[in-house]
């Protein structure tokens, strides 16, 4: 491919900037390019290199390996549960330990296996399938991994120490409040899971930005591989779906630690608020887990059927439907709590409707198999296992969506069976298909025949033997989470059968892991593209090198057939001639090249940041609240170093990416990856704030013990303190704009300083307001006001740090006429702080006036 | 990004309407709106039904204003608008089918 390359000529290009007419770079020696890129992109050697790695291939593999480790632990716990339930008077575990074990089984499988597994797959795979060299924020990938590892370790240690969470994986109050769970068991869950969820939000931000901005040139959204759409849907859901859980965990931990009564009925709280917040996360979570698995299916099925996917547009529409509708179902987990019939009707209808987009996908996959020539390779076996299992789980889901049936089956083993059919059918089977499909790319080695097939049959038979009969156990009335059932002889046989097949299932998973290990260690070297797949992930050597592509795909040449041309540097940005980790940034819709982003290299900064965040959580867990400000200061100090990458001292010269394509470097652009990342983060932040407002509204309207006692905070006094704060925040927003506009002049520095001072004034005013608040322990309304104020304080402080960063960058010459530094990001955070503070002030004033 | 927002317009409108009707339902029950009569029925029912119908009209408007065509770039926004319309029609239909606060 040495001649001119034609631009993408698909029949339905997206409106927007068209990809320029690009020609190929001249061919170079592939081995020289490989060495040059490996030097720049690979991890440093030794243990330091392991700690300092930020490369997406390393971090993604690490996420998946750690998730599999936690899956094994969760599996061992499930065997303990089944051993206990095998007989009606099981003496294997006492009740207290049994409670810890079933809670840990659920929590580990959901938070330490499923979510990190999908994050790992996304981090590892996305750049490869989109034609990029790395994720948008490599340090964020590493930070996410360390937060996951440290948080998971805290939770695991609690199990070994006998203080593991024991209130069930959804931690309902009042069972998990301080009165009923006085030890640290619940705190371990609340703090540990929140720590782990930092990695989920971090992954969501960078998956979103990577898909929208780091695709191959000319890869419009309308022709992006379906995996990209699935992961875009997943990340969007994570941005909005995780904040309710994070907020709920914060509120419950604050109630436990400081007595603020968000969930205490006697003081204006309501336990149902916890259920709402938890399931606002918990139900979308099912689809967050399912969508990446479905993405793997949509990738694997056409390849193994030697055809193309049927109904691309219908599948994209189905993803869209799932993403939104899944946020309208959460109350179906609460059908028995006494909600009015009309509200039940809304959520029952949405619960039934969500089956439609799921069915659209299932039929598209079946149609794809029908039109192709299916090959029963090992991944295809798992795909078929998925169909059998997930469809059955979906049907019992429709049954549970119907209110009268739900009332009968609620909290029985039927629900346990249903959720395992959905989660193992909809996530574990597709993930095993994905692992076996991409193992040659992961390990560079071929599979050892037959062992995997044996594992598959053990898993399939073991699974259905365990859980199919559990439906019957549930219909016979057996509740979830009981450890003995001496008075119910009708439950004995089905439980014994489930326990026997549960052990078969576990042996199957062990054999699967053994098969993967054998392949990695003893497998013969795999040939290139062993499945003859058309996608870009196979347009690279095996195993995948740290940089993925020696040059990036040209428009219309983004398939596996470009492998040799890309290796010879005939694509965009060949090699690493400047010694930087460079990636192409494109326009979100059309995929037209916009600029080159330089990514940070190996660094210990993510590890140090995770350690400081971990110290905060550990201090909270130990009850050393007075020392937590020290941890917060440490987080700010470490975080300050992250911002150093946003400015540079010279105007960098544009880069010639290909003949006829000269692109600026990111320091001279406004719509950078960092800017997009800040927007994505603010979406998550806005979701958290919206949930907080929902909490205020819910308690005001539904909770008993309202209206709240007379407030000592008069309307006039509130206004008096809120006004200077809001004025200062408005001035800071103006300063952020003016600083960015006048960055080349001395006035820019003055405006930045104005922004810093205005932020300080706002902080002082907020502190004054905090002193005037009623005792937050008195009533839920006062506690919620305390949280609203804390939210404002946190964001004003954060905006102040960005302002300070901008002023320092201006002072040190790290910004200039062409270089914007952190100013655009400061502006975003400043506007967000102003908007949310204004809404909070209006809300409090409204409460006082009405 | 403009194209992506057009794709998302219908489902986003559904999300806003779903949240608004649910909130209105909760507020109405707490404030005793079902007991307040209006010429069109009780205040609670009328408020929710009006919001629902207005939302449906907006959905139809979105659907009509989107460009026609068979190309994927035109087809996907219309699919998105259709999803929003059907979701609003079905999930909020209880406002005229079921008693409010019982």
TrEMBL record, chain A:
Task: Recite the UniProt keywords alphabetically.
Answer: Cell membrane, Copper, Electron transport, Heme, Iron, Membrane, Metal-binding, Respiratory chain, Translocase, Transmembrane, Transmembrane helix, Transport
Q: Please, one GO biological process term?
A: oxidative phosphorylation
UniProt subcellular location? Cell membrane
* Keyword Chloroplast listed: no
What membrane topology was assigned to this protein in its record? Answer: Multi-pass membrane protein
- Reaction catalyzed: 4 Fe(II)-[cytochrome c] + O2 + 8 H(+)(in) = 4 Fe(III)-[cytochrome c] + 2 H2O + 4 H(+)(out)
- Report TM segments: 63-81, 101-125, 145-164, 188-209, 229-252, 286-305, 312-331, 343-369, 381-407, 419-442, 454-476, 496-518, 616-640, 687-706, 712-731, 751-771, 783-804, 825-845
Q: What is its EC number?
A: 7.1.1.9
Keyword Secreted part of the UniProt annotation: no
Protein name according to UniProt: cytochrome-c oxidase
Q: What species does this protein belong to? A: Szabonella alba
Instruction: Name the gene.
Output: ctaD
Automatic annotation (TrEMBL), chain B:
Keyword Membrane listed? The answer is yes
Keyword field contains Transmembrane: yes
| Name by which UniProt lists this protein | Uncharacterized protein
- Which species does this protein come from? Szabonella alba
Q: What is the lineage of its organism?
A: Bacteria, Pseudomonadati, Pseudomonadota, Alphaproteobacteria, Rhodobacterales
Instruction: Please indicate which superkingdom the organism of origin belongs to.
Output: Bacteria
Q: List the keywords (alphabetical).
A: Membrane, Transmembrane, Transmembrane helix
User: Where do the TM regions start and end?
Assistant: 42-64, 76-98
